[in-house]
Amino acid sequence: MSLIEVTGLNHRYGERAILENINLNVDRGEVFALIGPTGAGKTTLLRIIDLLEVPGAGEIYFDGRCIPRSGKQRLEIRRRMSFIHQKPQVFNLSVYDNVACGLRWRGEKKNRIDGKVDHILEMIGLEGYKNRNARTLSGGEAQRVALARSLVLEPEVLLLDEPTANLDPVSTAKIEQLISYIARQRNTTMIMATHDMSQGQQLADRMGVLLDGRLVQTGNVTDIFRSPQNEKVAHFVGMENLIEGIIITNNEGIATVNIGGNAIQAVSSYPVGKEVYACIRPEDITLALSSIQSSARNSFQAEVTKVTLLGPLSRVEINCGFRLIALVTKISAEDLNVQVGTEVYATFKATGVHIIERKLAND
Predict the structure, then answer these.
(1) pTM tops 0.85
(2) How large a percentage of the chain has pLDDT more than 70?
(3) Of 142, 117, 143, which Cα lies nearest the Cα of 130?
């Protein structure tokens, strides 16, 4: 049974629809990442799940029970959850007092508070900061204090809203390590909103794509990044090769897609005549200086039109009758002496091509 279930949720601010027909299940102990651009409705959805707002329509279930819109039971359930905001909120008090405040409000005895605070500060790597004023901390340190203040209450559900926004890479790495550690060691259920897709890939068991207030796709990392359900999701997750075509043959699930007179073979159940996009991850394309024998069904002679260095990788744009982008290691690009004007062969498997329906604007 899911620990959290959201059904038919809709929410508006005035005349503006923020969330539309949201249906979501999160299992106990799962880390679920909500990815989407700024303004997609991620924070609002977290606030509604944390019972800080009442949705305009729809229901939220916690551990199988429908949460009422008001009353004592709502407060009891909310105490089982904790929310980490995008901008860390710390009081003008010592680090110790910041972390201990929730335990004091719940009437814990001092010796138990001391033990719990010491343990959690050691876990987040701030044991030496106990007496420091929390307002003097860096952004990353303040975020760790906010995380500690939530964790010391041992919530069943931890909601994180852009937990590393505006942090430097070192602080981001520390927060991500903490989130991963908590998920593994405490089996805490987490729902994390982020626009950092690599963070979602790294930390989450499953992901959901929220676009324009709609949860358009949920699944594991492979589902989301390699098999987007529509054009909008494909663009958002960085599917750079999104090529228009039409299926001209389909022989037992191996489809031939006509791309402006060129043919790509792909695994697809779509029938002949269907207008589609052929989606190919840049990292699935192999480049060579001559035609090579392989099991890959797709091989095209091409000319390099642009090369961009991306750290240890090279992003290579080619023209093979249609535009294609390949991502290869910098070492491979140097070995091939890839530069503008170089003639190469681009090869990729039929299984590496994901086909989605191309819908007309009025569909």
Answers:
(1) yes
(2) 99
(3) 117
